[in-house]
Design brief:
Elements lengths: L1 H13 L8 E5 L13 E5 L3 H4 L10 H4 L4 H7 L4 E4 L4 E3 L11 E5 L6 H14 L9 E8 H21 L16 H13 L4 E3 L18 E3 L9 H5 L16 H10 L2 H10 L3
Parallel strand pairs: 1-2, 5-7
Antiparallel strand pairs: 3-6, 4-8, 5-6
Helix pairs in contact: 1-10, 6-7
Amino acid sequence: MVQEFFWLYKSLIYSKVLNDCEIVAVCHPSVRNRLPVDSKIIAIEKLPFSSLHERWGDYKFINSVGNLADSEVLDVCKKFDVVLKTDCDTFVTQAMKSFHPTGLCFGFGAYAYEDSVRVKLAECSRRWGYPHSGLHNVGASVLGPSEMVCNYLQSHMECCDRLLEEEFKDFRGEWPNWSKQVLSMYAGELALRLTYPQANSVGLLDHFTNAERRIGSDVLHIHAWHTDSYWSKHHFREGKYAETKLEDIDRHTLGGYCHWLAAADVEQVRHAAKMQGA
């Protein structure tokens, strides 16, 4: 996870997005000293939410919701105009620097392709009195005005609690059908219906690390999904790209951009960013 944080950090340097922002890093106390030494990083030490709440003990994905919906974290986020909530294994591009969201922007989530899941989400929506927009597969990353993102995160956690109590207290299910395995993704969709159902865009974030696609102004943010195609974070960790020289990597493709940033060290990234000019 720390290695992945460096990927995101280096992308913020290379894209120059870090010139105008700060990173709020919510991390385990044991890794605090392994993060980069940088005044732009606001580190908030938190134990995993799942370890502090017995009812969530068997669901580690709740950490990416519960730890970020924490009041201390939200108070810091509210000091900014815009907030991007994302995983560590992601990369931002220079297009993010000039992007100004007026609503919530999401990536795609792959949790509601089965009719049975869509039916259950619609049932929950009706039962809870939320407007039903028919919007499914809302991604985990979210970018938007800080007040909207903070409101959404609080609602996301509330929806997680309610789903656990009403749908998954004594039921686990099996993905891709209705399943506790993706409870937090279901809750994210329901939270969006409750908070900003008409003020969102889905698909702007979490692009795939596709080597066939070139980076343009419509690519703000790339996510290292689980894949065996280039660029694969799993193959990278296994050393399968170790023979590739940095200068031979095409940074203009989504896959090459991620590969180069993962492979280069921080000083190499700083130098390359400086060579790009303003």
